[in-house]
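Consider this one:
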Amino acid sequence: MSIATGVSGAIKKVLLGDTLLPQEFTLGLSDPQTEISVWLRGPGEERDVTDRLSTACAEPFTLCIGFDEARCPVAQSLSRLTLTFCERNRQKRVLGEIGLKYRATLPGTGSRFLLFEPRSSNNFCLPKTRIWTHYLLHAYRQWRRDNSQGIKMTFLERRASMVTFIRPHPIVLVSVGNEKDGNIFPMNLLGSLGNGYCGFALRTERVAGSLVDKARRVALSSVPLSQGFLAYRLANHHTMQSIDWNQLPFTTRKSRAFDIPVPDFAQRVKELEIETSLAIGSHRFFIARIVRDEKFDDGLTFCSIHGFYQSWRLREREHYDRELTVSLVGDAFNKRERHPAKS
């Protein structure tokens, strides 16, 4: 390690202390998650949308909220709505807020799906001075990188994206096609939209999104924490047209409704039929009807949250230092590229 690197690390330690955690922090949680509720608030509005919310695109950063057709917000309130991320238990403290800017409405059977971009964002997981130090470090890292390729989010969009991951996101494996011509890959930009609908987003320029758009049917498999490392190993499948299922490091079985191969270890399998496919920007957003939803196991499910929220959720625990160390080791283990032989 160079002297410069050592000095830089020491400065970051002084400024950020033990809050310098990975932005995408992996862990095991119950399914469905019970830690965070998301409320839509505004003039005449206060409703729980925890299970009616999905990210639709990263650039421009876009959120989708599902509503019953007869209960959409009135037009006059659309410019003054805010998403509030709160503790579900204990003191129900507010941990983050995103002010919403209305963009469009998509139809569904008995539903309406409203698209919003952020107009403001606040994150309360860390003290204000510390969180802005994180923001400055993040902005500096982005400046140092070559931004000629990849997703280019504004400062506001990045902060809003961080807030959305206060609500835990399951990391699922998406199966599409069949054993002769198909693929399986990880995804975490997804959410229920109510009334039997689910929304999810895939990168526009990658093959995976085109495969789903063409097939119109997919199976989403929840991953047990013990198998979470496989999600990172399969990340390169996003760029593949098809795979050899026999080369996977796990066995598969066919889903009940569509006969799509899914992992034998899947805790829960949702089979979806695509109704809407919309290219927004960096991502293609899919709205799908849930055809079958089967849960096989109640163990901890592999999820991702933001590092700011992980720091907050451990802060008040009795053995904070020990739990923080254990969680960091677990996160690093989950992200290792392990290559076990297929049994």
About this structure: DSSP finds seven helices and 19 strands in the chain. Helices lie at 3-16, 128-144, 155-164, 207-215, 229-233, 307-315, 320-334. The CA atoms of residues 125 and 183 lie 38 Å apart. Residues 128-144 form the longest helix (17 residues).
